[in-house]
Amino acid sequence: MNANPRYNPDIHHRRSIRLPGYDYAQEGSYFITLCVHNRVCLFGKIVDGEIQLNEYGEIVRDLWLETPTIRPNVELSEWVIMPNHFHAILTINRRGGGGVCKGVLQYAPTAPTTTLQSPSQTIGAIVRGFKSAVTKRINQTPATPGVPVWQRNYWDHVIRDEQSYHDIAAYIVNNPTKWETDKLYSGGNP
């Protein structure tokens, strides 16, 4: 018997997009993409090849920058908030220290903290925690109580070498300038 009456295995063909057998808690760099629910342009708009964040985009930015504080084993590299999605490179580093990279491979550590820290250190837990925090904060604004923010799931790529890292970092940095040709482009800005 199916515990979820809305899930029908005959029509809901869910398959994992994770790399089979891969330990997503191990040290390494990962490229992630999160999409807004129904690809609505929720976080701002692109003007002259640059993102102009609105109130919701600023929430995404602020909470992303808190990630190394909550998870001291995470270092942030390039990331970009687009009108309807978010790209980032993050690195799991078991030595701790967390931090935000100021450009490719330039590491600036953050101060240690005694605030909330997550017990789970997988990419899935990091993404879930971030998406949950963003959704909660956006839903606390008077105009958007209960509004779905993110699509289910996320896309990830394990970065296996330096060339791949640099190619992905360049893609992220240049993403706003290529908005109209982006596969996640949804007809423009709000």
What's the shape?
A: globular
Quaternary status: single chain
CATH superfamily: Transposase IS200-like
What is the average of the pLDDT values? Answer: 80
Task: Determine and state the CATH class.
Answer: Alpha Beta
Q: Structural class of the secondary elements?
A: alpha+beta
How would you sum up this structure, described in words?
The chain has a single domain, classed as Alpha-Beta Plaits, CATH 3.30.70.1290. The chain has three helices and eight strands; from the N terminus they run E-E-E-H-E-E-E-E-H-E-H. It is globular. A hairpin with a 5-residue loop joins strand 6 and strand 7. It has 190 residues and is α+β, with helices and mostly antiparallel strands. It starts with 27 loop residues before the first strand and ends in a 16-residue tail after the last helix.
Structure described in brief:
The protein is α+β, with helices and mostly antiparallel strands and 190 residues long.
Jot down its keywords.
190 residues; alpha+beta; Alpha-Beta Plaits; six-stranded mixed β-sheet; globular
Protein topology:
Blueprint: E1 28-35, E2 44-47, E3 50-53, H1 55-70, E4 74-81, E5 85-92, E6 99-101, E7 107-109, H2 123-139, E8 155-159, H3 162-174
Parallel strand pairs: 4-6
Antiparallel strand pairs: 1-5, 1-8, 2-3, 4-5, 6-7
